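Extended Data, panel c. Modelled sequence:
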Amino acid sequence: MKKMISRRAFLKAAGVATTAAALTACGGGSSSSTAAGGDAAVITIGVMGPLTGGAAVYGNAVVNGAMLYIDQVNAAGGINGKKINAIKMDEKGDATEAVNVYTKMLDEGITGLVGDVTTGPTLAVVAESQEANMPMVTASATAEAVTYDAETDTVYTNVFRTTFTDPYQGQRMADFAWEVMSKKTAAVLYASGNDYSEGLYKNFVAQFTANGGTVVAEEAYVEGDADFNAQLTNIKGKNPEVVFLPNYYQDNGMILGQARGLGIDVPFIGGDGWDGIVTTSERYAEADELAGCYFCANYAPGANTGFEDAYKNAYGEAYPNGFAPLGYDAAVTLLYGIEKAEAAGLEVGTDAYKQAVIDGIKNGEVKGVTGTFTFDEHNNPVKSIFIQSFDAEGWPVLDREF
């Protein structure tokens, strides 16, 4: 019997309201002029994300990346001679709206979904997707609960992601500090109460300790704090060889400035929350403060120039952030599964077809722009991370895949 995500588990993980709301104007689009519904010459899928609202910087990057690959596939003749009809909709970063969008996509006859983008709305759609066993690939929702309910030991077998999880980042950066940097002692300064920060912190500590290292200081702050001198003074007194900052770039910039001012000159490292600490429009840390620092990400500039050139040609500007290549790879993953279903000669949209898409993804190897990967027992990608360092002028540069 197929296990269902419980309403209780969803509410606990997502923290969202479940009151119904009317579907307001969703932006629709298609990579094919052929209408969906009953046309054997097309395969209809959904592509959803927050195209407006506070999370639009992520949603537009994911959706544009996904549509870029879909358009490339259609330009090459589609899959098995069938064009991909991609229905694109805006869920405005809202969980209730995401469910409404998903329901409308079901009415349009989708047989697979690229989405959603952020964790709360994604969890809402995961809950709804179980009944239809809808193949679903999120580019960027990182919470473990998106694909797996640890409390009930339930894997949502229809749901995959192309980003790594929060725990995985902490573990890999612990391995990097131990294996590559050869550091034996570490300290951590994390944001208490922030799921992202605490997830990375706990897994870094567990892995670094398991490797044989010693965590000499575990300091916390509350989001909104701007003075970190007390925590940093404690860290300095413990003399660590490396400091792990599992926080977002704004806080990390302030921490680095104050740490260097206190004379803490060891390397600082972190997760993908560092992405944005230096951009063409903002600088949250100076070059001398960033010297010797490293952070991990799903993608690093220059890692795949073919993708970067294609994105710029399609949209008239450089790819905006790491969510765009993740969106591209989410589409690669879904269409990989569709290729397997087509090869089996099944009828588009049937239960057997959707299961073949899911089985194809689960048992296959996806070659994307963020790496070549398979999926583990919880449907998370097994792939390398991109380690970024900083050049002499303080700009992030690709250091290595790890």
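The chain has two domains: 7-163+304-382, 167-297. This feature is highlighted in the accompanying rendering.
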